[in-house]
């Protein structure tokens, strides 16, 4: 006989992946999964399907959490990005394209435009291919209502869906050249890989240095990258190439190996279109020991001033 605990552990990757896409937060998704387990463990009757019960439970928990989180996100200092995810624990070869596309920073930011119910319905139906009866049971609405929610959500998502190059190998290779140029301090090499309308956007949450919410255009972004090359070099920082939310990116660490930030790169038509950085330490604790970004950059500026 398979125990409830064993069933739950087998389903945990799926449950986390559902919750993360609804919430955009690693820590909140982990909490939602744990709460789903407590409810499953405490259910006196045996559910007909553990997958159906747990998927519905974690979805409803995530919807409730998202509703309360909306107020906090409206009050957030500067741009808000999802907590970076380095690897999706749920793998399904038949849904690999949908799973990968829905994990990108761009897609998760599009999901932020949806209502919590639309978001949950879209994730369950379009990403994980739940049937409409299953979706309806999960979110507590009729099948007809879920179909309407799905149509509205799909319309919003299709209108702003990002264009990524299909060839992941080429994207990874270009990202490697970009990060090598950054590591080598080759600003001209960096600039050559940027799209004319490139943008660099950072999520510091008011807890990390940030000159502006957003930099647009190759000249402005090149200037910022040149500054960051100098500052990171002064810190003895390391660039660690790594997929971030299914996209080419990197983890930046200080000389002691503590996390300074993560970068995710949108690559379109053979050029870097968008650079999204997360340096809010509250969003990086699941990645590893986190550096104090304010102290780190203060040190870098002082070292540069002394050198001058």
Average per-residue pLDDT, rounded, comes to: 92
What is the element string, with H for helices and E for strands?
A: HHHHHHHHHHEEHEEEEH
Query: What is the fold named in CATH at topology level of the largest domain?
Result: Butyryl-CoA Dehydrogenase, subunit A, domain 3
Shape: elongated
The count of domains is 2
The CATH C-level name of the largest domain is: Mainly Alpha
Q: How many strands in all?
A: 6
Spatial gap, N to C terminus = 71 Å
Instruction: Output the radius of gyration.
Output: 21 Å
Number of distinct helices: 12
Overall structural class, as computed from helix and strand content, comes to alpha+beta
Major sheet: 6 strands, mixed
- Give the low-confidence spans: none
Characterise the protein shown here.
Belongs to the sigma-70 factor family. ECF subfamily. GO terms for molecular function: DNA binding; sigma factor activity. Interacts transiently with the RNA polymerase catalytic core formed by RpoA, RpoB, RpoC and RpoZ (2 alpha, 1 beta, 1 beta' and 1 omega subunit) to form the RNA polymerase holoenzyme that can initiate transcription. Keywords: Sigma factor, Transcription, Transcription regulation. This is RNA polymerase sigma-70 factor (ECF subfamily). With about 300 residues, the protein is of the alpha+beta class. The protein folds into two domains: about 5-160, Butyryl-CoA Dehydrogenase, subunit A, domain 3 (Up-down Bundle); about 170-305, Nuclear Transport Factor 2, Chain: A (Roll), CATH 3.10.450.50. It has twelve helices and six strands. It has helices spanning about 5-25, 25-40, 50-75, 95-105, 105-110, 115-125, 130-140, 145-160, 170-185, 185-190, 220-235, 295-305; strands spanning about 195-205, 215, 240, 250-255, 260-270, 270-280. Strands 2-1-6-5-4-3 form a six-stranded mixed sheet. A hairpin with a 7-residue loop joins β3 and β4 (about 250-255). It is elongated. The termini are far apart.
């Amino acid at each position: 006989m398979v125990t409830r605990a064993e069933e739950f552990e087998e389903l945990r990757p799926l449950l986390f992946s559902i919750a993360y896409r609804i919430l955009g937060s690693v820590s909140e998704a982990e909490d939602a999964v744990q709460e789903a387990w407590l409810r499953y463990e405490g259910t006196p009757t045996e559910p007909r399907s553990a997958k159906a019960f747990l998927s519905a439970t974690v979805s409803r928990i995530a919807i409730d959490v998202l509703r309360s989180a909306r107020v906090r996100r409206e009050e957030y200092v500067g741009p808000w990005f999802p907590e970076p995810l380095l690897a999706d624990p749920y793998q399904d070869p038949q849904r690999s394209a949908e799973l990968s596309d829905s994990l990108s920073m761009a897609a998760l930011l599009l999901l932020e435009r949806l209502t919590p119910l639309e978001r949950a319905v879209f994730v369950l139906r379009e990403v994980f291919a739940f049937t409409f009866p299953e979706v309806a049971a999960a979110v507590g609405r009729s099948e007809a209502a879920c179909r309407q929610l799905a149509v509205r959500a799909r319309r919003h998502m299709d209108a702003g869906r990002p264009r990524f190059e299909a060839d992941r190998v080429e994207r990874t290779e270009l990202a490697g050249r970009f990060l090598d140029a950054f590591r080598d301090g080759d600003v001209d090499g960096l600039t050559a890989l940027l799209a004319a309308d490139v943008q660099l956007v950072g999520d510091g949450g008011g807890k990390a240095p940030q000159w502006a919410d957003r930099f647009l255009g190759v000249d402005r972004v090149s200037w910022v990258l040149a500054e960051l090359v100098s500052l990171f070099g002064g810190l003895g920082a390391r660039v660690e190439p790594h997929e971030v939310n299914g996209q080419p990116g990197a983890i930046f660490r200080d000389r002691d190996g503590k996390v300074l930030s993560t970068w995710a790169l949108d690559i379109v038509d053979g050029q870097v279109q968008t650079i999204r950085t997360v340096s809010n330490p509250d969003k990086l604790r699941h990645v590893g020991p986190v550096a104090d970004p304010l102290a780190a950059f203060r040190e870098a500026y002082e070292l540069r001033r002394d050198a001058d």
